[in-house]
Amino acid sequence: MKRVLPSKQLNSGGSICDEEIELQEYGTVEGGDSGSAHSRFIEKALPYLVPLLLDTMLKQEDQDQDDSIWNVSMAGGTCLGLVARTVGDSIVKLVMPFVEGNILKPDWHCREAATYAFGSILEGPSVETLRPLVTNGLDFLLNAMRDENNNEKLERIVAVLLESINDAPNVAEKVCGAIYYLAQGYEDAGTSSSHLTQHIPRIISELLKTAERTDGSDFKLRTSAYETLNEVVRSSNVVETSLIILELLKSILHKLGQTLELQIVSSDDREKQGDLQASLCAVIQVIIQKLSSTDETKPSILQAADPIMFLFLRVFACRSSTVHEEAMLAIGALAHASGPEFEKYMPELYKYLEMGLQNFEEYEVCAITVGVIGDICRALEDKVLPYCDGIMNHLVCNLQSAELNRSVKPPIFSCFGDIALAIGEQFSKYIEPTVAMMRSAAEVCAQMDNSDEELMDYGNQLKRSIFEAYSGILQGFKDSKPELMLPHAGHLFQFIELVFREKYRDESVTKAAVAVMGDLADALGPNTKILFKDKAFCVQFLGECLQSEDEHLKETANWTQVMIARVVS
């Protein structure tokens, strides 16, 4: 009789994996050999541990098919996923025989366990190890297939998947995951013709049908189908599939319109409506991003902008936080695609932006709204000016509030930079309160306890956003009122030096700090000559960045070096 691990042991195994993953990541960040940092208990136990986990995944209980109910099978799959992340490529040869041996069995327990096991190991191994499973045909899904033609293999794979998606809901959900990763395997095709293109109409059709299944409500099948649909759109060749994606957009807009006519008599009805609207808005966002990504297909999304915005504005009236998030993200994508033409939607949209900024309780909504305001500023530039007084008032109040979750505050500083860059010299009326806030935040960073990992992460976000705010303001004033920033240049230099001398410095913070040094020299010109000559750390900082393996950081450092050379020569 095969032994099955109890939940407590599965949790213990997961905890060991978490610890080893953290040690590996720490070793990578420090640039040392992560192998010397821990004893690799999981890797040593792999031949014994994996079979036990796979056996556990076959122990589904018929009464526990609801994905919201935690059971031994789900715990086994979660633990297997952590093991895969811990050991990487080594997991594949131990799991794939199990997948191949169970995927076609008549018992749904076996089919579900096989697809679950395969999905659980996809995050750990390298792309090079996983790619053959996609590009060469996911052979484990095929029954003794020996055709060497990749196109014909793909035809058979798609056929098997689309047949399997009609299986029991819990199996269908796992099949959605397989389609998700199959599509992802073609994402890097770029502008090249994609072998997946000819299959996309069938895949989209089946995913839409799957999302409509009424027997899948307890298995999150609808959400899984829509998430897979998003990945199919993201991974498609936009030129080859633009007409297909446009038809999909029409279908999704129709479905979104239908949700507004649903009869809502209970909180459960409201929740179901909100979940569906959120999924549909997310699909629309992906479609907007895809069709606006090329000059050839962009006009098609601009022609659909009016009906899209009309529906989004009606959706906001539902007041569901989840929908508010997804619809707001899609609006940000539409603003980016529309550019200055987005101005016509602002009179109606502005009140919902205000609502989002005032939503302290559901702070994720507030954070997303702040990000979308940044998108709108980049799209409208100085046309956003009529709304800036109200927006700035809300942003400053939010920074001063002790009630708002602190995670929203770094994006607010970045948003200051977006606004300044959009309206240029008109930002001068806001400069004093804005810089006062930035100075206060910089002081918080200086006094932060870096032994607290969570606090250190927040500190890095805050530092980066302060630098981004300074960059936006400097660039915004560059052509008209650069002298307004002269009184604040000394403080900015002090903050940059503080960050430079930190023992543990996040790379994103380094990039932002080096960029703002260049912006300072570029915007204020010879006025900064003495500052740069007096600050020897600048030379050290740039030298460090120029030695980096990160090409973007090196490019930024090179540009900054040129800007500084102009003012000190």
UniProtKB/TrEMBL annotation:
GO terms for cellular component: cytoplasm. It is found in: Cytoplasm. Pfam families: HEAT_EZ, TPR_IMB1. One of its GO terms (biological process) is protein import into nucleus. The keyword Protein transport applies. Residues 157-526 form the Importin subunit beta-1/Transportin-1-like TPR repeats domain. Keywords: Cytoplasm, Protein transport, Repeat, Transport. The keyword Transcription regulation does not apply. PANTHER family: IMPORTIN BETA (PTHR10527). This is Importin subunit beta-1-like.
